[in-house]
Amino acid sequence: MLRVGLIGYGYWGPNLARNFNAHNGCELVRVADMLENRRRLVQKTYPAVDVVDDAARVTKADDIDVVVVATPVFTHYEFAREALLNGKHVWVEKPMTSNAAQAAELVDLAESKGLMLVVDHTFLFTGAVMKMKELVDSGELGQMYYYDSVRINLGLFQHDVNVIWDLAPHDFSIMDYLLGPTARALSAHGSGHFNTGMEDVAYVIVHYDNNLMAHFHVNWLSPVKVRRTILGGSKKMLLWDDLNMEERIKVYDKGMEVTTKEGLYQVLATPRHGAMHAPVVPGVEALHAEIDYMVRCMDNGERPFNDGAAGLRMVRLLEATDESLKHNGALVELA
């Protein structure tokens, strides 16, 4: 039984508390939050859980095995580092840290102490993304041509990160999961409208191996909420609409047949129109599945695919978007 301590009971903290408390391999022992009204809410919801105002009573406690960090991004490094130094496994929310140097230090620290460092990229454990991974790995979609994502809504405005750091980690992590660390260059354009110094509307283009391009549209100023992604392949194309409860994934047998006739210089492109089918998408709660995966990895001594190294890759991509924004959308090469 893993004894869990949670730091932060804000926007995402209640979901984490509920899922860790319900998991049969975990015991939610303690929750820390600096706000009295949040602590009262924890006490009301989980009377048996110890509630404190000092994060050190989680990071340094002898009765905690796993520290879960669900606080503003700029605090992730401090809490995660303190927990690792005190021999705790760490689960940290995305993005992992405010910069790559901090993320790399945490990865090295966890490695040196033989501890698990997990970054919560929840979307990787949704039924839809698991189905996408299955279709990509099986070759059913063919060679991947492009990934086009729209992730927009009205708010929630974050006070410590811009819209790219808030929403694009979902797509960065999904592409990393589907294709591995194959990003080669990116550019980003964005603008802010409320004198906060933060972009609230942005567009990111990422170039991957094998001529694959990804485009992310992220926006806090949309009148409607949209969560839609198109994955284009040489054989088939996929539409993922995360707000469509009945058919989250649709696979289209559509594309272009390109031929060059002998004696002709022009290329002939003929559209191919086939059937559409909506595969069965597993109905799982992603956060529960992610916790279950972490527990299994700990039990079996396996390295999770959403480990600190993956989190570090995401932070490096996010830093590259900052660099591109500073230079008016210039292309930034990735190491």
What is the residue-mean pLDDT, rounded to a whole number?
Answer: 95
Separation, N- and C-terminal Cα atoms: 40 Å
Low-confidence parts lasting 5 or more residues at pLDDT below 50?
A: none
Q: What is the fold-level CATH name, i.e. the topology of the largest domain?
A: Dihydrodipicolinate Reductase, domain 2
N to C succession of SSEs: EHEHEHEHEHEHEHEEEEEEEHHE
Briefly, what CATH class of the largest domain?
A: Alpha Beta
How would a crystallographer describe the biggest sheet? 9 strands, mixed
Main-sheet strand order equals 14-13-12-11-7-10-9-8-15
What structural category do the secondary elements indicate? Answer: alpha/beta
| Number of structural domains | 2
Number of helices: 9
CATH architecture of the largest domain: 2-Layer Sandwich
- Per DSSP E runs of 2 or more residues, the count of β-strands stands at 15
Task: Identify the overall geometry.
Answer: globular
The radius of gyration over CA amounts to 22 Å
